[in-house]
Amino acid sequence: MGDMDIASAWNKGKLWFKVPETVRINLTGDMPDEISSKDIILNLLGTFGANSLLGYSVEIYGKAVEKMTLDQRITISSMATELGAIIILFAPSAQIIEYCSIRSKKEVKPVCADSDASYAKSFAIDLTGFTRMVSRPGAPHDVVSVAEVYGQKIDSGFIGSCTNGRMEDMRKAASILDGRKIAPGVVLKIVPATDSIWKECLANGLIEIFKESGVLVSNAGCAGCAAGQVGQNGPGEVTISTVTGIFPVNRGEEVSFWLLLTLWRLQQLQGS
User: Fold this and answer.
1) Do 189 and 159 form a contact (C-beta atoms < 8 A)?
2) What are 172-211's pLDDT values in tens digits?
3) Of the four listed, 58, 126, 258, 269, which is most buried by Cβ atoms within 10 Å?
4) Using only C-alpha atoms, what is the Rg of the chain?
5) How many other C-beta atoms are found inside a 10 Å radius of the C-beta of residue 165?
6) For the whole model, what pTM was predicted?
7) Contact 147/51 with Cβ under 8 angstroms?
8) Is 60 helix (H, G, I), strand (E, B) or coil?
9) Which residues contact 88 (CB under 8 A, 6 or more apart)?
């Protein structure tokens, strides 16, 4: 639920939900080595746009999907909204079931689709054709190859949010930054998604690597995404960011991500 949904629940004590139809996406082929889970969801945005899956629940399957870690699945599922979908679901692997059982201190029995389940739509998409992508400001589905924007001058960078503030992301960032310095005139902001990830970064020396590189590291949370803290753009600032939604803010003031999302969706539905 977004900010307005939660506020409505507090005010009215109830919310209205529609049980969605389900779409099945089969990702075929092997995941290319240079592709991340964020690239997968951005490639899917390029394929489906923001309206094709509007109001649907989406289940994703495939050989590559079965090998995905929890962090990778979270990255994709957290961007269901950008696809227009209600939710993105994965059948859990044995490792994820074990992870949940350990933390809940009881046996976890997964709920999976029946073998003869019916779907409103089904798609088979070849992963081998996916490339590294970036979403340009204005609309999340305005995705282009990283090569198209390579070399563009930026003022800042942000690594964090629910999609890319996980431990795997912190390790990847540290491996790139180790022994290097942030370029003069550029600010890099890194915000671990949770307190436990922040503490793990500290215990494993990642915070020290970030500090020596000149990174601005802040307390755990959503930061530059929904929370509107470290990672927000200033007026006229160009940034490269890992947040979920890319929406325009013209006057530099803080605007609720969920309000922008709602207004954008209404415009799409009205065809304006």
Assistant:
1) yes
2) 899 999 999 988 888 898 999 889 999 999 999 999 999 9
3) 58
4) 19
5) 30
6) 0.80
7) no
8) strand
9) 58, 59, 60, 76, 77, 79, 80
**Residue 58 and residue 82: Cα distance in Å, rounded?**
13
β pairing state of 156-159 and 187-190: parallel
The secondary structure of 230-262 as a DSSP string is: TTPPPTT--EEE--S-----SSSS---HHHHHH
Q: Residues 41, 75: contact at Cβ < 8 Å?
A: yes
CA nearest neighbour of 59 among 110, 25, 85: 25
Q: Tokens at residue 82, please? A: 């950008």
pLDDT in tens, 35-80: 888 899 999 999 998 888 998 999 999 999 999 999 899 999 988 8
Q: At what angle do helices 3-12 and 257-270 cross, to 10 degrees?
A: 100
Tokens of 9: 């629940």
- Report the half-sphere exposure of 119 (CA within 13 A, side-chain side): 18
Q: How many CB atoms lie within 10 A of CB 33?
A: 5
φ, ψ at 110 (rounded to 5°): -70, 155
Instruction: For residue 231, name the pLDDT band (cuts at 50, 70, 90).
Output: low
What 141-147 contacts at long range (C-beta under 8 Å, 24+ apart), as own/partner pairs, is 141/45, 141/46, 141/48, 141/49, 141/50, 141/82, 142/246, 143/42, 143/43, 143/45, 143/46
Amino acid at 235: P
